[in-house]
Amino acid sequence: SQKIEQNSEALNIQEGKTATLTCNYTNYSPAYLQWYRQDPGRGPVFLLLIRENEKEKRKERLKVTFDTTLKQSLFHITASQPADSATYLCARPYSGYSTLTFGKGTMLLVSP
Amino acid sequence: GAVVSQHPSWVICKSGTSVKIECRSLDFQATTMFWYRQFPKQSLMLMATSNEGSKATYEQGVEKDKFLINHASLTLSTLTVTSAHPEDSSFYICSARYEAGKLYEQYFGPGTRLTVT
């Protein structure tokens, strides 16, 4: 089965620093990976999608990488702010382009 | 764009009653919608895939007679929890698939907190 593993421990960083979250997957590389943000008591919000043939993708202060050799995606938030504090979820399709399976998420806490 | 709404946002019901949750894609048509359940500090667990005009596909371990799903139009899917029990108390989240060529971006509703007393 396809698994997504994210660090279950919360990541605490200071405002202004770069936060880096890790997502590891098993078995074959998916056609794409997606990253979501989830605030307590809310549904996930789509952030970025990165295709298998893309090494890196950026959106404002966000950057995602996709390393098929390491079977890993890294999610970076530069110049982090307390408002970035949330749980970040990584997701991959079960197979091909199909339904997504999610990791448990990593909680990010940015202190002022 | 790509907004998904869910109603109600929270509901409290008595054990043995049924509750209906609505999920709407507001600015796009979704042939496929998904229903998830999430327990505190746990990952999203897919319950079922809802396809417009056909029967839903349930994940292993999810009782289809207990969790009734209807996807009658391209913008509306409903989940009915029948004969609810306290163990059904959870956060239910729907998602609608936005198809951009071969890539599927999923957009989520804000969730419904169900408490069964």
List the helices and strands and how they pair.
The complex is a heterodimer of chains A (112) and B (117).
Chain A: E1 4-6, E2 11-14, E3 19-25, E4 32-38, E5 45-51, E6 56-59, E7 62-67, E8 72-77, E9 86-93, E10 100-102, E11 106-111
Parallel strand pairs in A: 2-11
Antiparallel strand pairs in A: 1-3, 3-8, 4-5, 4-9, 6-7, 7-8, 9-10, 9-11
Chain B: E1 4-7, E2 10-13, E3 19-25, E4 32-38, E5 45-51, E6 57-58, E7 67-73, E8 76-81, E9 90-100, E10 103-108, E11 112-116
Question: What do you see in this structure?
Answer:
- The complex is a heterodimer of chains A (112) and B (117).
- Chain A has strands at 4-6, 11-14, 19-25, 32-38, 45-51, 56-59, 62-67, 72-77, 86-93, 100-102, 106-111.
- Chain A is an all-beta fold.
- In chain A, strands 2, 4, 5, 9, 10 and 11 form a six-stranded mixed sheet that branches. In chain A, strands 1-3-8-7-6 form a five-stranded antiparallel sheet, with no helix packed on it.
- In chain A, β7 and β8 form a beta hairpin.
- Chain B has 117 residues and is mainly β.
- Chain B has no helices and eleven strands.
- In chain B, strands 2, 4, 5, 6, 9, 10 and 11 form a seven-stranded mixed sheet that branches. A four-stranded antiparallel sheet of chain B has the order 1-3-8-7, with no helix packed on it.
- Chain B is globular, with a radius of gyration of 14 Å.
- The A-B interface holds A 31-32, 34, 36, 41-46, 49, 51, 89, 91, 93, 97-105 and B 2, 4, 6, 34, 42-44, 46, 49, 91, 93, 95, 102-111, 113.
